[in-house]
Every structure is written in C-alpha cells, then in structure tokens.
Amino acid sequence: MILAHAFGKRYDLPIPLYLFVIGGAVVVIASFLLVVPRSKRAEEERPTDPVDGTYVRGLQPIAGVLATAFLGFLIWGGFAGSQEVAENMIDTWFWILVWIAMPLTVAVIGDWTQPVNPYAFLSKVADSDRARGALLGTHEPLRWPDWLGWWPAVVLFFLAACGELIYNLDTTVPQTAALILLTYAVFTVLMSFLFGDTWLRKGELFSVLFDTWGRLGYFRFGAPGRRGFAGGLEVGFARQVSRAAFVLLMLLNVNFDGLLSTPQWQVDVLRNLPHPYDLPGADQHYFNTLAFAGLALSMAVILVLFATASGFAGRHGESSLASFTGLLPSLIPIAFGYLFAHNLEYVLVNGQLMLPLIGNPPGLSNWPIHLFYPFNDSYEVDNSFLPSSFYWYASLFIIVAVHVYAVVIAHRHLRRLGETRSLELRSEYPWLVAMVGYTCLSLWLLAQPLTEETSTTSGAPPVHVVVQTHSWE
Fold first, then answer.
1. Contacts of 75 by beta carbon, 8 Å cutoff, 6+ apart
2. CA–CA separation, 240 vs 238, rounded Å?
C-alpha cells in the first residue's frame, strides 16, 4: 500500500504539541508587532470593487491540440485499460499531478497552465460566432446573469473536492475517472458555445482555480497585477458572495482533508454514527459530505464576523461582504501553505507512480512499448526516502511562514482604509485574532495524524491508530 496524505508512520514530536501550537501563535503575533511600527500610513486611494475573472490568453493551437489529444488518450486508457488504480495513469495524472502538484507549482511560478489546459482550449474553440450563428441564429453569446457569478465554479469545485476526499473509492476507478473527465469536456464545450469566454472567466473549474492560485505566484504571464510573489493579489477579488465562496473552498478543501485524517474523526466521530452497519460506507459518505458543507458555512460565518468586526473597529463604512472580500487575498497564502504541508509527502511518494506508468499508461498486459528502468514495472516506490521528521519540520515552517505573510497582506490592505493611525490599528486587531486562531487550528490538524492514541467518546480504552487516507493500492 502506498502512503496517503497522512504521515505513513508515527513520529514522536520533540516537544509537546501544545508548545508547537503556542509557538506558532506567538510567531504570528510577533510578526504583527514588527510590521506595524515600521510601516507608515499609505496615501493610496481606498480600494474599489475590482474587475475580476480569469485572464483569458489567446488561442495557442499547437499546445492546445497536444494537451487535448493527451487527455483523449488518458480517457481511452481509463475505459480500455487496467482498472487497478496503481496500474492506470489516469488517476495518478489527475488526482496527484493536476489536482495537487499543479496548483502548488502555479502558486509559486504563476498560472502557466492555460496553454496546456485542454478544457481551456476546448472552451476557446467552442466559443465560435459562426457556429452560434448557424445553430442559434445569433452570433452573440448568451448573457451571463449577474446572480450566477462564480457559482458554477463553486459547485464544480465542491463536487471535485468531495470526489477526492469522500468518494475516492469510486472516483479513482479508472473507468469512472475517464467518464467524469469526458463528461466535463462535453459540458465545457456546451457552456462555452452558449456563453462565450465568460464561461472561461467565471465557470470553467480549472481555469478559475489556476488563475486564483496564480495570483500568488511570481510571474503574471500577462495577467493584471505586478510581477513578484503575491503581486496578483493586489488586484483583489470581486465583491460577490460566489467569488468569496470559491476562495473559501480552496482553503477549506485542505482543512477538511486534514480533519478527515485525524484519529479523533476516524474513531470518535465516524464510529459513533447512528446505525453504522445499515449501509456500510454510505452513511459515512453522506455524513462527511454534509460535514464538509457545514464546515464551509460555519467557517464562512466566522471569518465574515471577524472581517465585519475589523471594518467596524476601523470605521471603514463598508458592508460585511466588502470587508470580507477586501481581506480575502490574505487567505490565499494560508490555503497554499496548508495545501503544501498536508500533501508534501503524498506528492513525493505517490508521485513516483508516474515513472512506471510512463512505460505503460493504460496498464495493458499486451502493451507493445517497453521502456528502460525506471519507466517499467521493475520500479518500486520508495516511501521512506525522507524521514517523517523532514515532512513535519517543513510543514511547520511553511504553515507559520504563510500565516505571517497573511498578516502582512492584511496589514497593507487595512492601512489603506484607515483614516487615522489609531483607527488603522484598531481595525487590525480582530483579523489578527482570526489569523492566530487559524494558525493554531492548522498546526493542530497537521499534527493529529502523528499522534498514537485517542480516546473514544464512550470512555473506552485508548485506541491505537495510524491514519492513512486516500490509499493507492
């Protein structure tokens, strides 16, 4: 069995966990105390509602055709090839490289993916005035309703996240994965044909996702914003509930993944569900889905309250939505940090599966191409080439670092809104409390799979567990 998101073996923390959590909180507070006295009030104009949406680049036919052909090949392999997860490339390619590794690279480099995104290419090709004129009698695309906003991307993200975190025993079956990718390709073509490039800017999941992650990256590739890390975040996000919901899901996706990995959730919660044996597995799936939605709503309410308190303390005169969306860019580094910390071992270990799969992507026994080592079945995944302590310390560093950076981004935003130095400082305290609390929560979730014992709510003796989720066999 290949390791999953959680640590593969127990690792004894060098000091008690509570000291790590408190230490992380202290570092965030200290960073705030260092930043505030050194900064002067900016004479910039108050931020306005920005023109938001995925930056659509021109059609690049060669890269687009090759990417779409590769997607078609993977879909064919999913239907016709081996149905063993570790023997068919489609699962490793999508769920490890596209869904996790690619966002990590985009958040560092910038959104380099659009030319090789087959769904973006299909969207641009389907956005044809001539085809609309022939079939619909008008060259103009349908109007995208204002109320629709980014909700299609939100729904698609939620479904994909549930497919990864909750229904992964089904979605990782190669035929199912192929059917999902094929269905989404057809759906993307239809929506682009009807709504034009608005679908690409606000609806197409991967374009919206990578564009949002890319705002944290160093290069802009023509998109609005200055060159440099987090330069794209200076553009800001639209003051719409749907846009805020999408960014929140980016953050909560990895938080919920961490929650599912904890022994407390596996033992204390899931084992105490009512009637756990009526529908084996199904009850847990439905419960986890509702829990994910409930967590998203609860976290949204909490963060909006803190943002509202920040605006009220600073007398910004803005609505709760405007206060929250203004601070929304400060959550992107945190989302990246937790995505990195939670998936570092998962990507480095399970990503090795791509090597033998290159030699036989569909996993067919009669595959005619035979490549040399390590691109053949003689390669074995090394799941212990780095010690667990490395992953822990790397994760600890990145979690604390991104929270510190989030405090800096929030400080820069609130500095522009404060009419006086006193009001500026007052507006920062509520959001600082939220950042400190989130730091503690992130470090706690990160460390829970490392713990060996957890007690059940029924008072039974401690249960020894080592959690592994999303296993790849």
1. 90, 178, 181, 182
2. 6
DSSP class of 361: T
Which pairs count as long-range contacts for 223-231, CB under 8 Å and 24+ apart, including other chains? 223/55, 223/110, 223/111, 224/55, 230/329, 230/332, 230/333, 230/405, 230/409
The predicted-structure confidence for 35-74, as pLDDT tens digits, reads as follows 776 555 555 566 677 889 999 999 999 999 999 999 999 9
pLDDT in tens, 441-457: 888 887 776 654 443 33
* Token couple for 305: 């309250």
Locate the domains of the chain by residue range.
17-354+383-464
Residue 221 has which token pair? 């590739």
Peptide bond into 115 cis (omega under 30): no
Per the listing, tokens 């489609």 go with 90
pLDDT (0 to 100) of residue 2: 44
Q: Looking at 76-186, which runs of residues are DSSP E strands?
A: none
CA atoms of 255 and 251, how far apart (whole Å): 7
DSSP code per residue over 196-256? THHHHHHT-HHHHHHHHHHTTSS--TT-SS-SSTTGGGGG---S-HHHHHHHHHHHHHHHH
CB atoms closer than 10 angstroms to residue 88: 28
Which stretches in the chain have pLDDT values below 50?
1-4, 6-9, 276-279, 452-469, 471-473
CB atoms under 10 Å from CB of 367, counted, come to: 13
Q: What is the residue-wise DSSP string for 37-50? A: HHPPPP-PPPP---
Which residues have CB under 8 Å from 173's CB, separation 6+? 83, 85
The angle at the Cα of 316, spanning 315 to 320, to the nearest 5 degrees, equals 110
Question: Tens digit of pLDDT for each residue in 242-256?
Answer: 999 999 999 999 889
Say how many Å lie between the first and final Cα of the chain, rounded: 5
Query: Hunting for tokens 């769904």 — which residue is that?
Result: 119
Alpha-helix runs per DSSP H in 318-420: 320-327, 331-350, 354-359, 388-417
